[in-house]
Amino acid sequence: MPSQAAVIASAYSFSLRVGRRSSAIDPWHFSATRRSMTKSVCIIGAGPSGLVAAKTLLQDVTPGSFKVTVFEAQSRIGGLWPNRKDDGGGLVHPLMIANQSRHTVQFSDLAWHESDPQMPRAWQVGQYLERYLKRYVGGADIRLGHRVVHAELEDGGPWRVQTESSNGPETSVFDYLLVGTGFFGKPAWPDYVPREAEVPIIHSSKYRNLESLLANQKGRGGKILVVGGQMSGIEIAGTIATHLSSAVNSPDEKEIEGPERYSVHHAAHRPVWVFPLFTSPKVNRSLPN
């Protein structure tokens, strides 16, 4: 590894749930051995991992040890997590309910508000991350709308990082590079599912409302098939069914024509057991011996 530059491919093992530190690369070592000179760090991604990495480099070492720049391709921070109810550009439906309570979907150094729901929705997780940014990462240079297209480590020198934004291409130089992108940044599309057909075919990450899915069907009705039995498949099947039920029973103007003519069908390789989010602490009947 060159002496003047290093890759921090995963300096920390971060997750929204626990936010714990890995011992692979220790920024305290960098600050102790190179305290006389501020080092520049490029972080790719302003999701949970990128934000915690920036906070650690700014807050948990000697002040002035690192100058942190975060490049984020989207126009907001948060990664997969939207921060508004009407955020339609991300991969997660803003109204999706998290599959864990707020007591586990949080960082150890920032609690949720007491008024927040026990099971937050996706847009509320995004707002939680906005709070984290304001509290801990204000000293970083957050560059939204900047997509990293190339990064190269020069021989015996620094990292050259190329980005593209609305202002055009740009090249920046950094001492260290930290990749904070996640596993789920690209939708998975099965090979056996065609991209186009006579009926609308979309990925679950693109669904927002009935109108966007069925507007061109002119109320002819039919079956809505959801393929996939993981959490996103379960969530989207329930969401579409709820939207159809609301459209059928709402006294207001119908979002689509003939919502009662549609039904939701969920295809999965394995059985899916869906439990209510809240259950009674009292047992209604005695368990068998």
Question: Overview of this structure, please?
Answer:
GO terms for molecular function: flavin adenine dinucleotide binding; N,N-dimethylaniline monooxygenase activity; NADP binding. This is FAD/NAD(P)-binding domain-containing protein. Keywords: FAD, Flavoprotein, NADP, Oxidoreductase. It contains 5 helices and 10 strands; from the N terminus they run E-H-E-H-E-H-E-E-E-E-E-H-E-H-E. The protein is an alpha/beta fold and 289 residues long. The chain folds into 2 domains: 4-12 and 187-267, no CATH class; 39-179, 3-Layer(bba) Sandwich (FAD/NAD(P)-binding domain), CATH 3.50.50.60. The strands form 3 sheets. The chain has a 5-stranded parallel sheet, with helices on one face. The model is unreliable at 1-25 (pLDDT under 50).
- Measured distance between first and last alpha carbons: 63 Å
Count, helices? 5
Low-confidence stretches: 1-25
CATH class of the largest domain: Alpha Beta
Which bin fits the share of residues in helices?
10-25%
User: Strand content of the residues, in percent?
Assistant: 15-25%
Q: Averaging pLDDT over every residue, what do you get?
A: 83
Biggest pleated-sheet summary: 5 strands, parallel
CATH architecture assignment of the largest domain: 3-Layer(bba) Sandwich
CATH homologous superfamily name of the largest domain? Answer: FAD/NAD(P)-binding domain
Major beta sheet, strand line-up: 1-8-2-3-4
Can you write the helix and strand succession as a string? EHEHEHEEEEEHEHE
Say how many strands there are: 10
Structural class: alpha/beta
- What's the number of domains? 2
Question: The CATH topology of the largest domain is what?
Answer: FAD/NAD(P)-binding domain
Shape: globular
